[in-house]
Amino acid sequence: MKLLLVGGDEKLKEAARYLLNCSNLLDNLTCVGSISLKDSYLAGEALIVIAGDAVLEDVTAITRLKSYGNVVIALLGDEDVSSIKDYVNAGLDGVLLQPVNREDLKSLVELMLERFAQGQPNNWNDMAQLVKVKSHIYTKFAYDLVYGNETSMKEILEMTDFLKIDKLPNCAMVVSIDNFAAITANQSQMRKTELRLKVLKTVEEAVRQLETGLVCTVSDDSFAVVFHLEYLDQEQAVKDSAGLAGKVKELVEQLSFTSVSIGIGKRYRDIRNLNLSYQQACGALEHRFFKGGGQIIHVSEVEPFNEGVTLFSPIVKEELLSKVRFGDREGAEDIVDEMFSGALQDANLSPPIVQARCLELVVNLLRAAAEGGMDPAKIGGFSSRYAKLLFDISTVQRLRGYMHRLVEKLTDEVSGSRNQRNLKMVQKAVEYINGHYHYDLSLEEVARSAGLSSYYFSHIFKKETGKTFIEFLTDVRIEQAKRLLSDSEFNVSEISRRVGYQDPKYFSRVFKNLVGVPPSKFS
Fold first, then answer.
1. Cα–Cα distance between 216 and 78 in angstroms, integer?
2. Which site among 196, 216, 226, 423 is 20 to 30 Å from 279 CA-CA?
3. Domain 420-521: what homologous superfamily?
4. What is the pLDDT of residues 105-140, one digit of tens each?
5. Which fold has domain 2-126?
C-alpha cells in the first residue's frame, strides 16, 4: 500500500518523511510524492490519500478519490473546518489540521492501515482518534458565533445538526482568569501557556458536566461560553444564567486552583445575536475593575460606564505633583489615598479610560520628579516600566497599590538626589569657610559661593552639619585659635585677628565659653 500526498505543503512532506521511517508501519508503505488529481496513480494501486484544502475545493474531489477505493484524509487549515460536514457526507475518512502534528499523522495512518486490511474504514464519526478534530470544530463554531461570523441561519442549523447540538445557544458568558498579568509577570511564555490551557480544559470540563454549550478562547486570559437558557421571564433568566455561571466558576476553581470572574450577557432568541450577548458579557466583566476578583457579574446588574467625567481634581492633582517635586513621600501617599477613595468608583468610568487618565498622571509625576532633581538617566526606565505595568492592572485596589509604589519610588529618588546635591553644596560651603574663616564672613557670602539662596542654604546647612552657619564658623575659628595658641608665639590680640575676630575682648569671651578657659590660660 502507498501513501499519496495531493497538494501537500512542506510541513506535510516533512511529517510524511518521519512517518516512513517508523519501523512499526507496514514495510510496503511508501510515499509516491505530491501529485495532482489527474495522475494515473489514483486509479491504480490502493492509496492512502492526504489531500490539501487547495485540492479539496468541493465534495466532488472526495467522491472521485473514493471511487477508486482509496482512503482519503483531508489536510485543512483553521478557516476550513466549516467544510468538514460536507466532506464527511461525501465519504471523507479522516482529518488533519494544519500545522501538521507528525504524531497525529502517524496514529491516523496506522489506524487506516489496520482498517484497510479489514476492509474499508467505518465512517468518520466513529473514529476515536478524530475527537480532537471534532473538538476543534466545536471551538471554531463557538468562535464564529461570539464574533458574529455566522450570519446564515441555514448554515448554522446545518452545523448544529452535524455537531448534534439539540438546543441552540442563546446566551454568552466570559470566564476570565483573575490577575492573570500579575500572577504570570515573572514566568516564561511556556508557563503562561500552561496556566491558560489548564483553565481552558477545566472550563471545557465544566461545560461538559453541566451540558451548557460551547467554549472558545477569546484572549490570553479569557474564554467565551455560549449556552442555552429556557425562555422564561427576564428576571428568571438572569437568575438562571447567574446560577449556571456560579457552577462553572466553582468547578473551574476546584479543578484548576485558579480564581476566575465571569461576565454574563443577555439572552437572545436569534442565535445570530450571540455576538451582542458576548459583547455585553465583556462589558459586565469590566466592572471587576471596581468590584474586585472572584465575581459573577450580569450585564443587567451594572450601570453603563460614563465617558466624560473628570477623574482627578486639578487642585488635588497639582498638590500631588508638588509633593513629588519636593520628595515628600508621606504627603504624596496621603493624596493618593484621597484620589483613589470612593470618588473614583463614583465616577463610573470604564477601566480603559481610568487607565488612560492614570497614564497621563504618571507622565506628569515623572516630569515633576525630574523637576525635583531625580536623575534624568532613570526617568526613561521608570517611564517604560510603569507604563507597561499600568495596563496589566485588573482591579482598582491594585491600581491604588500601583500608584502608592510609584510615588514612593519617585519621592525617594527625588529625596535621594536632592540629598546628594545638598551634600555637595554643603561640602562646597564648608571648603569655602575653611579657606576664608579669617575674613569677616557672612551667611549671604557663603550661600552665594554654593549657588544657593540664604534661606535655603541656612536650612540645608543645619540639616547636613547639625549646626547653624554661625555655630560652624565659630567652631572653625576657635579650633584654628587653639592651634595657633599651642604652636606659635603670637599674642592673643594677633591670634584674634588671624582667626577673624577684630575685637580681642569678644574673641576671649567666645573662646572661654567654648573651651572653658580664656585664651591666655590655654596651653
1. 13
2. 196
3. Homeodomain-like (1.10.10.60)
4. 667 777 776 766 665 544 444 444 445 566 777 888
5. Rossmann fold (3.40.50)
